[in-house]
Amino acid sequence: MFFVGFMGAGKTSVARRLARTCKVASVDMDTYIERREGKKVKEIFAAVGEEGFRAVETEVLRELGAAADPMLVSCGGGVVVTPANHEVFRECGFVVYLEVTADEAAGRISDTSTRPLFQNLEAARARCAERLPLYAAVADATVNTAGKSVPAIAREVQRILEKEGILCPQRR
Ligand SMILES: Nc1ncnc2c1ncn2[C@@H]1O[C@H](COP(=O)(O)OP(=O)(O)O)[C@@H](O)[C@H]1O
Ligand SMILES: O=C(O)C1=C[C@@H](OP(=O)(O)O)[C@@H](O)[C@H](O)C1
Ligand SMILES: [Mg+2]
């Protein structure tokens, strides 16, 4: 399954938390891309621009989508801007959309220097609004994250995935 949503929605944190509590594998696409390319996301943007980064992102999404083992994949926030990626989502699994406003995300992200596309709040608001319909289009389930902690969001997602038969019910 895949987590999508704007930067700061908590995709990386919630996937990691859920992987730990439910003992399943998780992969963060940005971390995977950084290892594969031997560069930080910021450096990839500086070297080949957003377009170059998106090309690598699509290759990686396809690889992860085709993987035999079930896992939790936290995508980068811009994964939905590439139309080809919507096909992967349609064919390869369940998509959970973590909703957040740009304003709330700005309060969560302490260091925006690691996120080349979150440099200024005005621009982030506009980018977020532009992407909302794209997140909604790929989502199989939507979780609003406003004012909730990472463990609380992870529990909410866990219930959804258990109901869908994607995760085995855990003893609580
Ligand atoms: N629900 C939340 N409440 C408060 N802080 C959060 C929440 N989710 C994530 N964060 C913090 O926000 C920052 C971005 O989270 P991250 O998981 O990297 O988001 P994403 O992968 O969606 O960009 C991190 O510093 C993280 O600790
Ligand atoms: O929204 C975006 O375009 C991006 C989001 C980032 O991931 P997070 O959403 O995990 O911050 C990262 O992939 C890159 O900086 C581009
Ligand atoms: Mg992330």
Automatic annotation (TrEMBL):
Keywords: Amino-acid biosynthesis, Aromatic amino acid biosynthesis, ATP-binding, Cytoplasm, Kinase, Magnesium, Metal-binding, Nucleotide-binding, Transferase. Pathway: Metabolic intermediate biosynthesis; chorismate biosynthesis; chorismate from D-erythrose 4-phosphate and phosphoenolpyruvate: step 5/7. Its cofactor is Mg(2+). InterPro entries: P-loop_NTPase, Shikimate/glucono_kinase, Shikimate_kinase/TSH1, Shikimate_kinase_CS. One of its GO terms (cellular component) is cytosol. GO terms for biological process: amino acid biosynthetic process; aromatic amino acid family biosynthetic process; chorismate biosynthetic process. It comes from Adlercreutzia caecimuris B7. The gene is aroK. This is Shikimate kinase.
